[in-house]
User: Fold these one by one.
Assistant:
Number 1:
Amino acid sequence: MRIRKLRLENFRNFKDQTFYFEDGINILAGDNAQGKTNCVEAVYFCTCLKSYRVIREEQLILFGAEEAVITLTFATGGGEEELKIIFRHEKPKEFRYNGLVVNRLRDLIGCFQSVIFTPDHLNLIKEGPNKRRNFLDMALCALDLHYTDQLLAYQKIIKNRNALLRQCRENPLLAEMLDIWDEKTAEAGAYIAKARQDYLLSLSAIAQRFYCDIAGKEEKLKLIYLNQFTKNAASQEEFFALIRNRLQKMREADMAMGQTTSGIHKDDILFLLAGKSMKYFASQGQIRSGILALKLAEAECVYKKRGDFPVLLLDDILSELDAKRQKFIFQRMEGHQTILTTCELGKIRKKGDQIFFIKEGRVARTRVPSSGAGCIN
Ligand SMILES: Nc1ncnc2c1ncn2[C@@H]1O[C@H](COP(=O)(O)OP(=O)(O)O)[C@@H](O)[C@H]1O
Ligand SMILES: [Mg+2]
């Protein structure tokens, strides 16, 4: 996967800027608050079809402007594609793919693949389980259309089940209807659980290999899918039975709480290093290596599933990594397109890389890799 061109019109602090990205490494350099992360956000938007930074997407429109547009032109194995996203105030965003309006978001899932790594990810192990679930969902939604459908369905089902649980407190006769909702919860939940379990198994195997390479010694990194059923299941059917039984067992408690207290919305990932929970025992350095291995494994999983390596987006991450870890990341980036941002250009390798100097929402200057000389955009 290669981005050829990115045009941002009234997107965040970019009035109208076109980036021509090269194969290999593209560096967005500049002081703080100039627009580097805004650019990365626009690219990643094209993968997730939503912002990873804001809930209210109106915030993406340049202050005072009426609409914002992202136009991404990218090459896949099959040819060149164009994805256009238009944001307007108080209206749903509009998607166009190769000029045609796309009404169903699901038709766009997986079209443009990128993997993002930001300093925020370094907190993934120590933070609460919702961050880790979010990581899983973001990765799986970009890979598996059916997963996205099931996840959306599951969220609706839980909302309905919770409403019914609360009604049951007033009218216990309604409790009979819970059987149907338990079935529905277990059905969508079983698909999601199996997908998460399978994904973590392959992610764990790759991350383990990367971790040893980074650490320079054999140390076992393991990512384990944690659910409330305590054991992993061999099949979707088995998950279905486990989830449904659990819901039935918890029904009284759920009614009292007016909430579904068990299910895949409580899942977590356990990071183990040499058999010990990284959350409690790992050093800062081990956590950095673990997350680095995880993120690179995420990209590798996209490649395995899609046969095309995703674009890597590294936002301000190099300053968080020491020379050894930086070297590893550069080795892995070899041959793939990467966009990385930095405030400290001097500290990173820049020979042969395309550099965009960003200032106040504009590319003030670029340096193309072939000449190495400064040139005005
Ligand atoms: N909707 C918007 N309209 C105009 N400017 C915006 C908008 N949203 C954010 N900004 C500006 O973008 C800048 C931050 O850009 P960012 O990409 O996060 O910086 P950095 O270069 O440090 O990564 C800030 O100056 C902020 O005011
Ligand atoms: Mg930034």
Note: The chain has two domains: 1-113+309-377, 118-307.
Number 2:
Amino acid sequence: VTEEELSGLQWLSRERPEAMQHLLAFFRESAQHLDPKTRFLISVVTKVVNLSERGLRQYIPRAIREGATPDEVLDAILCAYPVAGLTNVIDAVQVLRSLDLDGLETASAATGEPEWVTVARGDGIAPGTASVVEARGRSVALFNVDGTYHATANACLHQGGELGCGALDGSVVTCHRHGWQFDVTTGDCMTRPGEQVQSFPARVEGGEVQILV
Ligand code: FES
């Protein structure tokens, strides 16, 4: 989804809510039986076929964050060859090589049993605001929704913008880069229904904010 298409999607949802709710329900229900990593790898294949550099830059990091390895992404790119042809495959490989994949967190960044980790003082983040914290090597967005803390992965599902730098309105954060929105209490993506950013349980213990990560 390009930025132009995205704003068009949001506009249509407002102008034609009944028609759009069927389309959005289709997105939700058609993705029920595939795990996120597989879905994003399939999206990579479609972006090779269309030779959409923007789409590749969007979906390769998302596949990596869901646990795909660079070799699996390369396999997906090569799978597109019979339809996409060699030129598209080579160009997609160039996009893959240009991405800083080492800087991306994967869904399994923190290994072992989850632990409660102190990330802030209880009064450290004002109600209605967000912040970025580190916990067990992960970058986490921490939100104070009317005095209750919520935590999600910091990287936006779109292109990795920092959700902890976004604007919080009620329980909805708007990514500061291109405006994707997420419910911080569940991680649900409002812009792409059916997709979710990882969320972490949060609590206040002994005057400290802790998250289970
Ligand atoms: S990075 Fe584009 S909306 Fe978040």
Note: Residues 156, 158-161, 175, 177-180 surround FE2/S2 (inorganic) cluster (CB under 6 Å).
Number 3:
Amino acid sequence: MPSVSFDHIVKKYGELTVLDDLNLSIEDGDFLVLLGPSGCGKTTLLNLLAGLNDVSSGQIMIGSRDVTDLDPKDRGLAMVFQSYALYPTKTVRGNLKFGLSASRLPKEEAEKRIAWAADMLQLGPLMERKPAQLSGGQRQRVAIGRALVKHADVLLFDEPLSNLDAKLRTEMRMEIKKLHETLNPTVVYVTHDQIEAMTMATKIAIMNGGEIQQFGSPDEVYENPANLFVASFIGSPAMNLFNVDIGVVNGEVVGTFSTGETIVLSAYPFERPPQAGAKAVVGLRPEHFARPEEASGDTALAIEVPVRTVERTGSDAILTLNFAGGLLAVRAEPDRAAGMKAGQMVPVRYPKSKINLFDAQSGQRM
Ligand SMILES: Nc1ncnc2c1ncn2[C@@H]1O[C@H](COP(=O)(O)OP(=O)(O)OP(=O)(O)O)[C@@H](O)[C@H]1O
Ligand SMILES: [Mg+2]
């Protein structure tokens, strides 16, 4: 399975520059998720790779082939669209077969591939039905099957699950992941759903405003967000972000919140030592807060502050606390949250090893 690379890609629509000098490359067998808010250029980038749209400048490689100016059909890829785009008058079998119509395969080989895809996606009992007689998830499976029968080296998906309900989405997510593990094609998958990105990707490219904000494994972008955009985009509830002034107190580097509390930064792996008085934004993940009795030597922040709201979701609870002139989201066990009332004082601590720190001016990780 081939690698894919975008080299200095520029895409303009008239005066509007949608992608500006974008560089990105993935290895063969990678599952790349393009993740970002609406309008950031995800579909544009995918369509450039598919050949449905032309680059303004730059080069696209699939393996060792320069495909920049090739016809879509000569690029060796298959695409699954958000809208499924099934033929309403054809049966499931007919739709799968249609995926092969351009390839002029011998009938026997075509039948074999259709049977293989139907088996893989459990479409067997549905083969003679028309799309109108299928559920949303079944239609999506047919759309994926139609791409699979092509035996393409590179599979492209544009928000394939956004029309499905939550339960089906979870199921299809697992199926697509399983498919990738079994067949190991190179995948480029567009979504604005961070759960899809985190669960399926081997690599995530987080995009905003036509630029790649960070490229890395799901763990890397979650644990070490490169800037404030990524920090606030990945994670639910979102990372807590507070302004602090950096200084030295009793020989220890600390961040001082606007309301005077301090957080210990002495264990923070600064790339460069910060200037005293530097303005920073400290990022604290809701799930890394712990009860004070679980405290160990690595506590950076220990506070006791009033709770404002308690949201219990069943498996866990989100406490919103009043802190440092703002709101602090803390994930807690449901039994701890049970019976908690607004105004009640809640003690929590945060470990040194889980601190994120960003330059307040540039937004870059410090
Ligand atoms: N044919 C076009 N002409 C002019 N501008 C366009 C065209 N197609 C897309 N754009 C603009 O390019 C930008 C990126 O669009 P794109 O469809 O790639 O976004 P996206 O990240 O896929 O968003 P979404 O999540 O909403 O699908 C948007 O600002 C959009 O308005
Ligand atoms: Mg799109």
Note: Residues 159 and 366 are 33 Å apart (CA to CA).
Number 4:
Amino acid sequence: MVKIAPFEVELWLNKYIPLSKHFVSSSCPLPITLNELRSLSDKPVSPDHDPIPESLFSAALHYGTPGGLPKLRETIATLYSIKTPTPLPAKNVLITPGATPANFEILHALCGKGDHIIVHYPTYQQLYSIPEALGAEVSLWRSKEEDKWAVDVEELKGMIKPNTKAIIINNPQNPTGAILTRSTLESIIEIARENGITVFSDEVYRPLFHSISPADPEFPPSVLSLGYDNVVVSGSMSKAYSLPGIRVGWIASRSDEIIHRCVNWHSYTAISVSQLDESAAAFALDSSVLHNLIKRNNDLARRNLSILESFIEKYRWACEWAKPVASTVAFVKFSKMGKSVDDVAFCELLLAAKGVMFAPGSKCFGNGVDFKGYVRVGYVIETEKLEEVLRLVGEYLEEGFESVPVAKK
Ligand SMILES: Cc1ncc(COP(=O)(O)O)c(C=O)c1O
């Protein structure tokens, strides 16, 4: 049996979503319906231009095309080719059933016993627990809470070993909503290039950049466009594109060798992706829909973020944060008289009292040790629902916060 650590955030969600009235810790923006997706199209919907086109009703539902639906691979390749001198070929995009298998395949293609892997932290646990399960030595490269979750590039230089095989980053970052800026990414690439190291970036929250303008010189590009080929990224329809119910994600790399290794793992894990899912994804990413879809999600994120910000200002005596710049999540710290609360107890008590469900930071993102007092809030839900939830949390802070224990050292 291969031993792997419990996937804490997913286990927490599985356990408590059925018991909650208000689930406010999803990392997906408000999921969209196919009808709403249709309504976002600038081009009239027709039998050919539809999430599920008419031709699919009479098509044999065989396995999908190896590597993925050609139109979808081309569209995704184009998205990575903007502002780059050399376009990414469609053959260098591999469609997967979500980013979870994409990450699984990439990690299996990159990591093994005897390898040293550096992972940006905190992050989605998959990114460090799979390398550990594969026998790699994992070093966590910590974002600094006190510096709005920025990382220290000098520290990264000091972490490199002769057997360092990969640097894994998650940009924008789950659970903080922080970003690695352009200059930080350029430094990471420089360090990787000097040492012949692969860079793997989980970019599932691209392009949900609600609080930084693309005109900002520090706006983060995809690492695929920084002129280093030994790079691989994963992406997904679940997050920025609000379609977690169609299981479509992808792997993209300029390195044919990395893609070939991933294709081999893909054959063992997925074979192909549902034709129906791929077709809906191709519709959502079509230029007639894409911009309106991103606008829908960024507008909702901005509107809700300002509501969450007012809440945090009002309850400054109990909570604080580094305001997120991107994605759908915020990492909010709760404390009493300067002492972090026991975030697991807080989440459980709040759920029991008000039906509101958050994810505790120390359990879901901190190996039970780091990020005590933090909770992940998924705020890109219906605005009225967020307002109602924050009213309930406010009530709880006024009435029940007294009984929440502080964290043990
Ligand atoms: C950073 C990160 N990567 C990957 C995933 C998995 O995404 P998908 O729904 O595409 O499998 C998640 C889900 O929360 C995530 O936060």
Note: The radius of gyration is 21 Å.
